[in-house]
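Structure request: Transcription termination factor MTEF1, chloroplastic, Capsicum annuum.
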Amino acid sequence: MCPEILTIPLSTTLRPAVTFLLREVNVTGEKLPGVLRRRPHLLTKCVEKNLRPTLYFLQGSIGIEDVSKCASLLSCDVEGKFIPRLDYFQRIGFARRDAKVMFRRFPSLFCYSIEENLEPKFDYFVVEMGRELKELIEFPQYFSFSLENRIKPRHKMCVEKGVCLSLPVMLKSCESRFRDRLDVCCSSSMPVRQSPFCLENRIKPRNKMCAEKGVCLSLPVVLKSCESRFRDRLDVCCSSSMPNLVNFVLVLFNYFVVEMGTELKELIVFPQYFSFGLENRIKPRHKMCFEKGVCLSLPVMLKSCESRFRDRLDVCCSSSMPSHLELKFNYFVVEMGRELKELIGFPQYFSFSLENRIKPRHKMCVEKGVCLSLPVVLKSCESRFRDWLDVCCSSSMPNLVNFVLVLFNYFVVEMGTELKELIVFPQYFSFGLENRIKPRHKMCVEKGVCLSLPVMLKSCESRFLDRLDVCCSSSMPSHLELKFNYFVVEMGRELKELIGFPQYFSFSLENRIKPRHKMCVAKGVCLSLPVVLKSCESRFRDWLDVCCSSSMPVRQSPFWYRKFDHNVT
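Returned structure:
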């Protein structure tokens, strides 16, 4: 109840508050009565001093997009209610960002008392239930359930059954559904007692072993590790040489740096290295790799099971693979004398045959006194490779600069093409002048055809000749020429319209272009090409009727057909 509403002025407080809720908070007219019944104090608050600052806090600081769903919070004080609860969650271990996420997911948290609600439930969650804080971040609705009537009874039932359910399943389910879940988890059809997290088979025994050794391990290490891995961790933590975790990490790090001699960036990529036993996993496997002369990455060396690890060693040590790569690498360094950065840029070098591709082509380059890049030497087909050699060795081109200049001069003087084509297709300079560019350009000139550089040079011989035949056939040029002549002479339009609508050439000249253009001329209307040609017959006639009606002054419109108007005058 809120009797003070009766004493508040209608024009200065009540009306601005209702307007604020409707316009700024976006509360619909249907939901407004329910919001006011639930929180009548909204009508007693000043918009400028209370409601609007609270709205900005919820939207800006907390990140609640639709405040209309929690409009009742607008009557609360930011400094007196919201900030203390955010500070409380920070004090108990949550990051500021995580606390905001919780309030964003469940804004009603702002309404709960710290002493009577949040604190008792949080203590029970940590001490009795022993759960992680990230579960509260994902399910902050935990604080909305009764501690005595819902949380404690259901948690005790789970403990008695040896079952660990997630918070939503444990608390949100109705009583019957909750008991069904317990029965399913405890029934013979689901072997919970044989599961890795069973209370009797996993949790209790391992907890006792940790207590006897005086070691405190994290829950994932205690429960998720296999039996041998768990015992290794216990032995490592309890060994005399490692009284604490700091010494344990230092010993592992010293072995990594001194014995293994690996770069530190591998630890950055694979920090799980410190989770493996030094005596049981790292040393034995590193020694095996050292004896075999193999260098494996940390994940492959440590994470693989024993059989998988030995298989990797056998593969790396087999006679076929190392010798194959070694021979190619030795030839690259000793015979070819190239820098290693070329292999980094072109590792496909190792995929080519040493005897059939690498050696023969390298010898040809040496005989010609030419040094080509690895991709040009190995990836080019035989004819293309020889063209490159001939170009680089011709007397008129002693170096690459002259080669490029000659190609450029031919492009400008003989071909007369615009420079922008070179910008779009700089691969022009990779083709032979005598074997590819000149012959194909001459054929295009003889046929009277102008092809783009990629079509003229990249196509194979048969594909290039097919393109020429198509472009020179009697049906195609005349077809386009007739349409273009009609467009320029009869229609009198500007060429930029063809640039904007090249589909003009796809329409029939006799059945679509001419008839519709004549109708436009007869009506004294000038429509755009897409409207004239793409519209269906009925839609086109509608356009003509609209443009010719008395309500639209066609003669003053930009679509007035000037040629017709000139003829009329």
